[in-house]
Design goal:
221 residues, 11 strands, 32% strand
Length: 221
């Protein structure tokens, strides 16, 4: 097994353009560089064809809504994470990637299925304030897509949102995870469903949650 370096991150951006993947890559890359990581950015999944190269990164950030990934690319990524490369991502860039790849979804710990009500106000509650990512943070209000997901019950949930009857009466009171962490083999995984629009990261609570999630994933928190 190739041991990943401690200060290298790979951001893979593409897929549905409505999520502005290049803008998100710019924001995320800036954060990582500020934290001292060497960042490589690419707009092609072909980078995943080389299993040895993938395994050398310490952190990989899928930033690719929907789209198609080959079995070899998916296997190389999943094996790298299982062997100790870490994974982090936001919104559809990781929670709605490669809809026909159940192995990728198993690694992430969830999959987007709907955002009933589309862009709307909702609250995010922090449910695990003992975790380093959420320690000292408070719940906050959002104006965004309130993601409804299929979620792995083995996740360690950090934040949730509660749907109300104004969206769909039959999901009134449903508590849905917003952010979680998990292990996939030796790799750390962080996911947040926030981040539909880059301007959401201007909100201090959102920025703090996501920056801490990246730091935790790479073992710096």
């Amino acid at each position: 097994m190739i041991q990943p370096l401690n200060s290298t991150a790979l951001i893979i951006s593409g897929g549905w353009p409505g999520h502005q993947p290049q803008k998100f890559a710019e924001i995320i890359g800036h954060w990582l560089k500020e934290d001292g990581l060497e960042v490589t950015q690419t707009d092609t999944l072909e980078v995943l064809d080389d299993a040895e190269a993938v395994a050398r990164y310490s952190l990989i950030i899928p930033n690719w809504t929907m789209g198609k990934i080959t079995e070899t690319q998916s296997q190389n990524l999943r094996q790298a994470v299982q062997d100790g490369v870490n994974l982090a991502g936001f919104h559809g860039g990781m929670g709605d990637s490669f809809r026909d790849d159940a192995g990728f979804q198993f690694m992430v710990g969830g999959q987007f299925v709907a955002h009933p009500g589309d862009m709307r106000p909702y609250r995010v509650d922090l449910t695990n304030t003992a975790h380093p990512i959420t320690d000292g943070l408070s719940g906050f209000e959002m104006q965004s897509e309130q993601y409804y997901l299929h979620v792995d019950p083995s996740n360690t949930v950090l934040a949730t949102t509660t749907f109300d009857a104004s969206v769909k009466p039959w999901i009134d009171g449903t508590v849905m995870p917003v952010a979680w962490v998990r292990r996939h083999g030796a790799g750390r995984v962080f996911y947040s469903s926030l981040g539909h629009d880059p301007r959401e990261f201007d909100q201090p609570e959102v920025a703090a949650l996501h920056r801490r999630g990246l730091r935790w994933a790479v073992g710096r928190l």
